[in-house]
Amino acid sequence: MEKTVEPQVVLLGSHLTKQFYGNIVLEDLSISCKRGTVLALVGENGAGKSTLMNIISGGIQPDSGSITFMGNSVTFKNSQSAKKMGIAFVHQELSLLPDLSVGENMMLGQEPVRYGFIHHRKLHEQAESVLKEIQYDVDVYRMVKELTPAEKQMVEIAKAWIDRPSLLILDEPTSSLSKIETDHLFKMIRTLKSEGTSIILITHRMDEIFRICDEVVVLKDGRMTKTEKIENLTRDDLIQAMVGREIIHTFPPRKGMSIQLDSLLKLKSIGDEGRLNEIDLEVPRGRIIGVGGLEGQGQRQLARGLFGLHFFTHGELILEGKRISLKCPVDAMKKGIAFISDDRKSEGLILPLSVLENMSLLNFDAISRYGIISRKTERREINQGITRLAVKTASPQLPVQFLSGGNQQKVIFAKWLAMHPRLLILHEPTRGVDVQSKLEIYRLLRELADGGVGILVFTSDMLELIGISDRIYVMYEGRIMGQLDGEEATEEKIMTLSSGKLLTDIQKGGDVLAARINS
Ligand SMILES: Nc1ncnc2c1ncn2[C@@H]1O[C@H](COP(=O)(O)OP(=O)(O)OP(=O)(O)O)[C@@H](O)[C@H]1O
């Protein structure tokens, strides 16, 4: 192995190229990462970020180009060999086994053995000491299936930390984390960094780039459009490098909440056996209603219950003046309700099927109220959806598992929109979606609302919540803590309600975030 780079450069990928089925995904791309720094890797959905990181971490081989790691020229046969050398990649799609404990998952493949059997106590002790090192507190004996998505994400990171990698790659690690958990993760990243670990962070969140990263690499269509120290960049510079033009208006203008609005869906004292309590909420036709709050306050149960995926035991659901009950998703679809779940991998898509097949999964004839949607129309609508949402795919016949995460989300959108719902429920709709596509989605939601659709969005993204909602409900411990009309919503008020306090103590007046959105 020959020494080829300066000592402070941990990783150097040179002239990397990759094609899939003749589609060039990375083109002559070079990247470097220094010791003890956090490098942000950003770019639109399908820009090639995951492909690049998969190459760096041995998951796939480049068609050409070379990698130098810790001064040595390396070729990884697979991700195990990269891991051994000190490169760990925590993927967006979590790989934990649900029926094993936290400790067993973390130590998988490296279990301590005594008398030929796994030494369970030692295994859990070792896992616990790794968790201590990264200052994360979770019971190592708990089953992974009992964990929240956020807890799973942290366990994945802990698992990657077992080998104390010199380079830790994190693919959108905060997408399922609450603000507090994100703060915790960032504290951990700072500690690892100060001890000399290098981190590459794939993210779509602007604030994170400026908060935690030292340098940024921007990819567009498989090429690098910018590499720069964060201190030399503004938010606008970065957006411009990502989308190739300046974005002036992030959110389309909101609508007021006049009292004459036609009620579409009304929830009266909705409750369940566990989490939800006395929920009153209303979605008028033609408006976007946001539901916010810290993660895990009952949003998931409420969102799913409105699509027949969770059972309400108390209260009434009233759709267009009629009391309804939703026992399963087909009930909901027949009533014109569409649901975009936060769990796209297992609920939105069948991964081995093609883009087109996934889109044709909804049987429109069966669910259409008047039976007038023909297959031909359906196909046309789907194609329009693909174009409208700019789904990036080498071919409509490509299995959807090969699409980038954000493009998979767009496929789900296009599929549901072709059903012409009258009520659209969305749970974390722009998680993993790039900045440009987010704007497209916001515009689309407003267009749909203007066409009379009622929209209910559950989101933990504060900017999104304030930016798109005509009215916001904030949840706390399974209840609605308060509601705010669009214009009066501020981050401070939402945070107050989210922490279980009433608004009476808050001074009037806006805050920076709301001012930015409203300007
Ligand atoms: N195994 C594969 N076979 C075919 N095409 C692939 C494969 N893996 C990735 N691609 C294609 O390569 C392109 C880049 O995908 P990649 O996942 O690297 O993008 P990304 O920048 O990580 O996007 P996102 O932000 O949405 O996760 C996409 O068009 C994707 O469809």
Automatic annotation (TrEMBL):
Keywords, in A-Z order: ATP-binding, Nucleotide-binding, Repeat, Transport
InterPro entries associated with the record: AAA+_ATPase, ABC_carbohydrate_import_ATPase, ABC_transporter-like_ATP-bd, ABC_transporter-like_CS, P-loop_NTPase
Gene3D superfamilies assigned: P-loop containing nucleotide triphosphate hydrolases (3.40.50.300)
Molecular function in Gene Ontology: ATP binding
Keyword flag Transport: yes
Span of domain ABC transporter: 11-246, 259-502
PANTHER family attached to this UniProt entry: CARBOHYDRATE TRANSPORT ATP-BINDING PROTEIN MG119-RELATED, GALACTOFURANOSE TRANSPORTER ATP-BINDING PROTEIN YTFR
This protein's name: Ribose import ATP-binding protein RbsA
Organism: Paenibacillus marchantiophytorum
Top-level taxonomy: Bacteria, Bacillati, Bacillota, Bacilli, Bacillales
